[in-house]
Amino acid sequence: MERVFVVGAGFMGAGIAQVAAQAGYAVGLWDERADALSGAMAEIGRSLGRLAAKGRLAEPVDAVLARIQPAAGLGDAANADWVIEAVFEDPGLKKKLFQTLETVIPDTAILASNTSSIPITRLATACRRPERVVGLHFFGPVPLMGVVEVVKAAETSQDVFEKASEFVRSLGKAPLRVTRDIPMFVLNRVFTAAFNEACDLVADGVATPEDVDMGLKLGFGWNAGPFEIADNAGLDTLVRIMSFTGSLSEDRLKPGPGADLIRSMVQEGRLGRKSGRGFYRYENGKKTT
What we know:
CATH architecture of the largest domain: 3-Layer(aba) Sandwich
Largest sheet: 8 strands, mixed
Oligomer: single chain
Strand content: 5-15%
Shape: globular
CATH class of the largest domain: Alpha Beta
């Protein structure tokens, strides 16, 4: 049985651990915050329970949960085949983590980042063997989303790129193969341009977040509206991404006037689903208003 080691037990890390366990992998999950790790295990159990209730889980909940082991530290990655970091969107933090992991993981292990915006080539400069570094950008909620961007950095070997694509397929998801490593890859570039405009419209009082979400779902077939997506991702994550996109040369990706709305919400502690309140309110992880 292949082993997957996930670093970061937040919303995304927990989801990645869950889908890997559902696919039959033995999973180690680590976070430096013990409360985040215990909270992630509890949320994974609830998520599996919801899938089971809908007849969408092939095995008993306990059988899937048994494949996920909370790790005591990064040293537990020593026998991993796949190591996926899902920590804060901070390039310095991610590069430092990669440097530490390289001293622990086997020579045959593939090192992946779940970053949503930072070029993988930039992160791979921290590694002695950049050819085994690849981007695996999952979308949240991970158990419900069907696509993963597989990003080939400047020095990612073709063999690692192909194996990463197959790994994504083994999770029951479609790989979107990004063959040139650019900031924000493919889907987030499209979403960011749309979300900037949506925020500006709301900030200008043209429409409410609810109506924008409703219109894009009913008018353009989106499964979730931009403000629902933002709440799922975490508004604090969006603020970190905005600090990055502000430095890009493309004007369409730079934050507009509506960005101040997001920053003020974060200052108020309105972080989205994970805090119980963002553009919407949430109870037990479910949107209520």
